[in-house]
Amino acid sequence: MFPLLFLAYVVAVKVFKKTTPNGKVTVYLGKRDFIDHLDSVEPIDGVVVVDNDYLQGRKIYGQLSTVYRFGREEDEVMGVKFSKEIVLSKEQVVPQIEKRDEKPSLTPIQEKLIRKFGNNAFPFTFHFPASSPSSVTLQPGEDDNGKPLGVEYTIKTFVAEHSEDRGHKRSSITLAIKKLQHAPLARGRRLPSSLVSKGFTFSQGKLNLEVTLDKELYYHGEKISANITVNNNSRKAVKNIKVFAVQHCEVTMVNAQFSKYVASLETREGCPITPGASFTKTFFLVPLACSNKDRRGIALDGHLRDDDVNLASSTLVAEGKCPADAMGIVISYSVRVKLNCGTLGGELVTDVPFKLMHPAPGSMEREKANALKKSKSIERTRYENSCYADDDDDNIVFEDFARLRLNEPDE
């Protein structure tokens, strides 16, 4: 008889943590990305763990705040500010205040942490206000030394006598989080298209251009397919064709708009398209953040680490609401096609809008993306599981949340 070997695969739960400089208070968050589902936004649930006998009658307060920076920090002179900080929510975390009308309900990650840390753990929950903007960061240039433009969210906890006190750096914690939107489960069957024509002075006939995309919604890293058909019924010849993926940004605070090319190609295939000729071909573009690393002003999903950078997702609004009412930095995308007809003929240009987003959790595309990500870090996963399998019954893996510590102002 051969002994039977039973292999147990342990699934570790990752929890982000950050400790005050004096080491007395630690904040734990189950995640850093919170998804806006249009009709609701995921709550920010975490736990504060404080050392025994540290507070001595003082309290721990927590707050959710956003910073909307719409101008360069180095241009702020004579008291002019190009940013606006808003405290969205604030409450006393330790000791907890019981509310008569509300019974505290714990999320699964809060229950795990309270089981682990016992009476020293205090849960907290914050909620994003309705219509709050998504996290977006505009990529700084080489000469930009200040904080990047965009919308950022932070969770801050601090020890103080009263809620109006600012607290001291040694007993305060600031954690950067992201509010994001994911694509709806159904992509839809509509194929975006555009048909435009151009006539020429002192010349009969028109140049016709039709552009059709193979879908309306694309996921980050997915190939965009644009079918281009040119019918030249004019007396001019098409010299070349240019195709771009364009990112459009609207900064609502200052009512400013600008656009950036995030992918492009130029071809002379089939050119010149002479009078009376036709041309049809499918072109492919892949807009990626890694292809635009050195370009100032490219909008990115507010990122916390260099390995999770991607282009900003398209801004969605709830059904029945106008896109113009969206706050923050409103992002949209289009495929732009240009036909060059020479110096005298000019250009024929058209834009076809599309959406660029992350797959929704639970969708097949999201599962495939997660599987690929896991396969790339399988060795790290095995290491974590082996190290933390016996950590406690809930198998929690803690990851330091150290960002922003160096950016905190001295008190």
Automatic annotation (TrEMBL):
Gene Ontology CC, one term: cytoplasm
Molecular function via GO: G protein-coupled receptor binding
Coiled coil: none
Gene Ontology annotations of biological process type: G protein-coupled receptor internalization; negative regulation of phospholipase C-activating phototransduction signaling pathway; photoreceptor cell maintenance; sensory perception of smell; signal transduction
Amino-acid biosynthesis keyword on record: no
Keywords: Sensory transduction
Protease is among the record's keywords: no
Entry-linked SMART domains: Arrestin_C
Domain of life assignment: Eukaryota
Domain Arrestin C-terminal-like: start-end pairs: 203-361
Family: Belongs to the arrestin family.
Annotated protein name in UniProt: Arrestin C-terminal-like domain-containing protein
Species whose genome carries this gene: Laodelphax striatellus
